Amino acid sequence: MSVSVILLLLCIFFIVFQLRPKRPKNFPPGPAPLPILGNILHLSLRNPLKDLERLKKSYGNVYSLFFGPNPVVFIHGVKAMKEAMVTRATDFAGRPQDLFINDLAKRKGVVMIDHGPNWREHRRFALMTMRNFGMGKRSMEDRIHDEIEYTMKTLEKSIGKTLSPQMMFHHASSNIINQVLYGTRFEYDDTFMTETIRCFTEIAKITNGPWAMLYDTFPFIRKLPLPFRKGFENVETLRFLLLGLLNEHKKTRVPGEPQDLVECYLDEMDKRPDDPLFSDEQLNRFAADLHFAGTDTTSNTLLTGFLYLMNYPHIQERCQQEIDKVLEGKDRACFDDRHNMPYMQAVIHEVQRVSNTVPLSVFHCTTKDTQLAGYSIPKGTTIIQNLTSVHNEEGQWKYPHEFNPENFLNDQGEFVKPDAFMPFSAGPRMCLGEGLARMELFLIMVTLLRKFDFIWPEDAGKPDFTPVYGITLSPRPYRMKVQLRSSA
Ligand code: HEM
Ligand SMILES: *[C@@H]1O[C@H](CO)[C@@H](O)[C@H](O)[C@H]1NC(C)=O
């Protein structure tokens, strides 16, 4: 009797031991995983951040965790980040392909697709098109300035009062992307506008929540009618909305005379009729990706920027003095003016540093067996970059833990960009909207600061700078008081 019990226990022990995921040889260290669950119990589903911080303290800048049976490597600090993303570039340029977000994206688009010809062709197309802006007469700057006019109107209506800027900035960055993609803007209450915002917000919330984490960890629950289904419904709604818009373009466009990115894409499809990579379905996902990637990112950075500028009024004032001097006699700012505005440049970069708008970048994946920080990492391993860790890293910044534009100024007051500045990540997968985003941040901030003073309302209490956690970080909702500048 007791012998058979012991044998049975031994058997169970042996099976459990066998099922336990094992770290490959010389893999980055981390806590011991459990069978099936991996390290999921090491993280609280509600606030995993605290636990991850603790793990980094025990295991160092490159450590690993198991999500279910799959190992994931976390990278911190500028040294490891550069080694992976820049030195070993292609080795780390993949995207994991078995996650909730891949199923949502249906393996199309550009942001989530793996390293390979489809990604390369679409990335190249997007960069080329946005760089040369071979889209009719209106330049990128014109399109941004057009939208700023509407932001100014919203602000003018609130002069002497307070307003909540969330929707204002969201609409502005959304419409700038719309101008680039579709050559048109949408009124704030247009169904396209309200529905895309609703879908994107819900998708972001689900992707970031506990259900997506469970979906990623336990493949057997994927077909069940659980709350993550809502994500797929939203993707369908979005696809349908875009389909209508794209079909309109097909009817109205003049081939060879594209006015926007979508029409450039349609021209590209004409040029390569037999290329399966450029297709209607792919265009639909591609447009959705650029829209999604370019909206919350920019607007949350702006929100953080104005939160700080209101609470550091002497910094706001110094920006305004520089703007007045450089723009004297001109009716509007252009992106090239940045070269004469070192202080403004420093402030915008400092805003991006403290915002950490995309704190964990987008997940990467190794494309072959490789090395990092002396460890071996097999092909197909998920890589999570902690960009915040670089922006707060001691030894990389004059003032790592405070808001201070001096982080980007040298002794002569000239603008300098330290190596550890990487809000857009680095390497072959680096944000492809960087150029557009930087132009938006500069033109919007300069134009608004030239005309208005932004004041933290007297009754607003102490500001809370701790961000709300998400795929993108945003400040807690706040109100701003707006005044016309006396000198303007
Ligand atoms: C302040 C604004 C923005 C920030 C902070 C930001 C940040 C990022 C980051 C961290 C990544 C991940 C890079 C990586 O995986 O290593 C990324 C990717 C991407 N971003 Fe942005 N982004 C911003 C604005 C934009 C805009 C305006 C667009 C639209 C044109 C855009 C389009 C993309 C795309 C398409 C990718 C995927 C690139 C790829 O996988 O090859 N982003 N962005
Ligand atoms: C990223 O790094 C920062 C700073 O080191 C830390 O506070 C945060 O918890 C880390 N996040 C993750 C997800 O590891």
UniProtKB/TrEMBL annotation:
GO cellular component terms listed in the entry, alphabetical order: cytoplasm; membrane
Signal peptide: 1-18
Protein's UniProt keywords contain Oxidoreductase: yes
PROSITE patterns xrefs: CYTOCHROME_P450
InterPro entries in the record: Cyt_P450, Cyt_P450_CS, Cyt_P450_E_grp-I, Cyt_P450_sf, Cytochrome_P450_fam2
Cofactors (names): heme
Residues annotated to bind heme: C431
Coiled-coil blocks: none
A Pfam family assignment: p450
Keyword Signal: yes
Alphabetical UniProt keywords: Heme, Iron, Membrane, Metal-binding, Monooxygenase, Oxidoreductase, Signal
Superkingdom of source: Eukaryota
One BP annotation, GO: organic acid metabolic process
Predominant location category: membrane
Compartments where located: Membrane
A GO term, aspect molecular function: oxidoreductase activity, acting on paired donors, with incorporation or reduction of molecular oxygen, reduced flavin or flavoprotein as one donor, and incorporation of one atom of oxygen
Family listed: Belongs to the cytochrome P450 family.
Protein name: Cytochrome P450 2F2-like
Organism phylogeny: Eukaryota, Metazoa, Chordata, Craniata, Vertebrata
